[in-house]
Amino acid sequence: MSNYEGIRLEKGMYREAGQSFTQVLEKLDPSENYTGTALEGLDAYQRQLKRFDIKVKGSGSDMVEKFFRTAESSVLFPEYVSRSVRAGMEEGNILPSITATVTKFDGLDYRAVYSAATEDDKSLRRVEEGAVIPQTEIKTQENLIKLYKRGRMLVASYEAIKFQKLDLFSVMLRQIGGQIMRMHLNDAIKVITAGDGNNNAAAELAIGTSPMTGTSGTLTYKALLEFWAQFDPYTLNTILVPPAVMLAILGLSEFQNPLAGLNFQGTGEPGNPLGAKLIMTSAVEAGHIIGLDRGYALEMIQSSDVNVEYDRLIDKQLERAAITSISGFSKLYEGASKVLEV
């Protein structure tokens, strides 16, 4: 039975341990009850927006003050802020392209695991009848992985924004989300290159220094092939580069064939003869290339998605309202990521 109009909204719904505001609403008003109705496809939070006739998107979106017409409708505002920030974090987010797995963890210090296999353990040896089967031992890392709170402070008076359209205000909040995600990306790249504190920094190679041939400062397709060859038994399937290096790579003749151009025009992603995903980001140090096997290189540990100071937002105290996200990163297999200095 549907009862979304009879739910009593209150601040305490944000305090449920281990549950988001929307999950609390879903328990009280399950979406499965609306199958085959006009409200099918909306989640419990979106049904509450409909209940109070709050439009957050499009040219006909309401003003911010619409959330504060009643005490109950004001409870919906922090979730609107959280969803808008989360949308900004997801726009252009490259972390899914460089992380093998995401672990949810309730805390700030995480102990990762790793495979403690020797070169002999890794070899595919024939096992004779009655012989001991080679072992791969899984251990916990010696040092803890620290999770960091990244966020931005929302500084605006209610009087300054109450007559702003929600559609426009969402743009500002999405920008905050994008800034938070760039902080997490910087953390991820730092762990890939320098390690997570457990003596597992990425191997650093340099053009012109063995085993790489060529001339230092000159990027060639052969250098990229040699870099690719260093990853066995892993596979170089993701390449992170700063803007200047991206221009140098795209300037190579091997990257300028007609099929690569058609692919770039059709998908927006540059073609790559190596078959790896080529990602440009200013978070990579100038003059460097980070290569990795995204299936084995990095673990993302997430303590919280997006947290907002709901008390302040509900009470219209937007001045100094913090929006935060807590995450950290752990190296999985040391050999699955390497750095090339051009």
How widely separated are the two ends? 64 Å
List low-pLDDT spans.
Answer: none
What is the ordering of alpha helices and beta strands? HHHHEEEHEEEHHEHEHHEEEHEE
Strand order of the largest sheet: 7-13-10-8-9
If helices are DSSP runs of H or I spanning 4 or more residues, what is the number of helices? 11
Name the helicity range: 25-40%
Can you tell me the CATH topology of one domain? hypothetical protein PF0899 fold
In round numbers, the mean pLDDT is: 89
| Proportion of beta-strand residues | 15-25%
Query: Can you summarize the main beta sheet?
Result: 5 strands, mixed
Give the CA-based shape. elongated
Give the strand tally: 13
* The top level CATH class name of one domain: Alpha Beta
Which structural category do the helix and sheet elements fall into?
alpha/beta
CATH architecture of one domain: 2-Layer Sandwich
The CATH homologous superfamily of one domain? hypothetical protein PF0899 domain
Radius of gyration: 25 Å
Kindly describe this structure.
The structure is a single chain. With 342 residues, the protein is α/β, with parallel strands linked by helices. Among the domains are: 1-51, no CATH class; 200-298 and 335-341, hypothetical protein PF0899 domain (hypothetical protein PF0899 fold, 2-Layer Sandwich), CATH 3.30.2320. 30% of the residues lie in helices and 19% in strands. It contains eleven helices and 13 strands. It has helices at 21-28, 44-51, 71-74, 77-90, 119-122, 158-161, 166-194, 221-229, 243-250, 258-267, 310-314; strands at residues 101-104, 109-110, 113-115, 138-140, 145-146, 148-154, 203-206, 238-241, 277-280, 288-292, 298-308, 321-331, 337-341. The protein has a five-stranded mixed beta sheet with strand order 7-13-10-8-9. Strands 1-11-12-6 form a four-stranded mixed beta sheet. Helix 4 packs across helix 7 (166-194). The longest helix is centred in the middle third of the chain and has 29 residues, at 166-194.
